[in-house]
Specification:
Conserved hypothetical protein from pyrococcus furiosus pfu- 392566-001, ParB domain; two-stranded antiparallel ribbon; 7 helices; 22% strand; globular; ParB-like nuclease family protein
């Protein structure tokens, strides 16, 4: 089992086979829909995990809007696959489906409150699994944008 982290920094190892790019290059290649959703600064996942954030239940229905975003890669191309595509045709996206099914729900997902809504920073595969299992709630930590900025590289 795995938790579905993004690597040590946002943008590092997001994909398993996509070529390495700088953070600025990564942001430039993001679809506009993603640039509008995610805070525009580089942060380290390890530092996010070190924050003293309370784990609390969050309603999955408040987060499923993210399933329409092209969050995952396909054949080395970033931002090509949405979680909804994986849910609709899992055999077309076997690697992502397997990551969803292997995700360990004992680990909370990590969210940031940004622009008036909760955004998943780490844990989309776990969120998808909980949704597949028809759970109503998922355990999460919620950082503010200021707290996330403190996790800068």
């Amino acid at each position: 089992m795995t938790i579905d982290g993004l690597g040590d920094t946002f943008g590092a190892e997001v994909d398993r086979v996509a070529p390495d790019v700088s953070f600025d290059e990564l942001v430039a290649m993001m679809p506009e829909a993603l640039r509008e959703v995610f805070p525009p600064y580089r942060w380290q996942l390890a530092k996010l995990w070190e924050l003293d954030l309370k784990v609390e239940p969050v309603e999955i229905a408040d987060l499923v809007w993210m399933f329409d975003l092209p969050l995952w890669q396909l054949d080395g191309d970033r931002f090509r696959v949405t979680p909804n595509q994986v849910a609709e045709t899992p055999m077309n996206f076997r690697a992502h489906y397997q990551r969803v099914m292997d995700a360990d729900l004992d680990f909370p997902i990590n969210l940031v409150a940004y622009r008036g809504r909760l955004v998943v920073l780490d844990g989309v595969h776990r969120l998808a699994k909980a949704h597949f299992l028809r759970r109503r709630w998922i355990e999460a930590t919620i950082a503010t944008a200021t707290q996330l900025r403190s996790c800068a590289v």
